[in-house]
Design brief:
This protein is α/β, with parallel strands linked by helices and 103 residues long. It has four helices and three strands.
Length: 103
């Protein structure tokens, strides 16, 4: 619960919060890129990614989430998830700007 309270305390009311969680929707790279493009095109609020722990997150955090995404069905340490998320954001920007990205 304390972790959940700390997470929620950092968020502003108008932030769009994406919770990365094993129970979220799994998007492929094109779906992820489309979702980010829509966020940056149509929304003016801040996009915040929250990484759920291996044991999940508090229900209050899950209820506050605007979107639930799953990067993988495999459980990774937070440090690896940060790297995977950054790579997916980079890939999404490459896709959305029609630039080549080496696979």
């Amino acid at each position: 619960v304390k972790e959940g309270e700390r997470i929620l305390a950092k968020l502003k009311p108008d932030d769009t919060m994406v919770l990365l969680d094993l129970q979220g929707d799994e998007l492929d790279s094109l779906g992820f890129a489309k979702s980010l493009d829509e966020q940056f095109t149509y929304a003016s609020n801040t996009l915040v990614f929250v990484i759920g722990g291996s044991m999940g997150v508090d229900d209050a955090v899950r209820k506050r989430a605007d979107r639930l995404w799953k990067l993988s069905s495999v459980t990774f340490p937070h440090q690896i998830v940060r790297l995977l998320l950054l790579e997916q954001i980079y890939r999404a920007f490459k896709i959305n700007t029609h630039q080549i990205y080496h696979k």
